[in-house]
Amino acid sequence: MNQLFFKSSLVKKYVVALTGVALYGFLLIHTLGNLQIFLGSAAINAYASLLKASPEILWGFRAGLLVMVLAHGLCAALLAIENRRARPAAYERIPKFGSTVASRTMLGTGSVILIFVAYHIFHFTVRATHPDISFFHDSHGRHDVYSMVVLSFKQPALSLFYIVGVACVCFHLSHGVSSAFYSLGMVFAGYERLISRFALAVSVFIFCGMSSVPIAVMFGILKLVPS
Ligand code: HEM
Fold it and tell me: What is the 3-state secondary structure (H, E, C) of 19-73?
């Protein structure tokens, strides 16, 4: 029975780690894609329309993303419940040596990310939250993603919401990336510090890349252009 419990926990750890790595890959590509906005409206609009060129690939990709988010969240929540049940009540108040704020708040930041991503999809993909600024087309007849993003982030509250959301994602990643290395058995003695620095570096890169878009709009670096 104990062995079965251990095995199923191990499987869940692998699922959390592998889906986390895949979602991290998506986020990295999304950050690089978003940075194309600095190349001008033609570049980002062409990129966005290229992504939607094949409905089969687009919907296959979206379905894969959804399955990964669900599997990641479900297995992480089940592991947290199992860990809590396995912990003797007497030890509950013992300080958690070696843990960090990021590691202790993974479920909390994960839940905030879910809410952020749900809003984000309704905002930019479904285009339901700001329909008045989300359905323009450029001179090539493509969806004008550039104008939609700039007009959105001209609203300071929305920009702030995105910066906080992205900060939450990156805080989660700062522990998640190194945790995935451990779960997949890829940590070798002496490399622990290197791995946690790598995790921090990728989180900072994604934070700077993502938040640079609303910040650039607020400071007038990215502005509306006639299309
Ligand atoms: C300031 C930061 C961000 C900006 C400017 C941004 C921009 C965008 C835009 C414009 C789209 C719609 C693309 C289109 O349909 O043409 C999009 C879709 C999406 N974004 Fe972001 N994004 C940001 C942060 C994030 C973060 C932090 C996450 C995940 C944690 C994320 C996850 C997604 C997902 C899942 C989609 C839907 C992809 C699809 O349509 O299949 N984004 N984003």
Answer: HHHHHHHHHHHHHHHHHHHHHCHHHHHHHHHHHCCCHHHHHHHHHHHHHHHHHHH
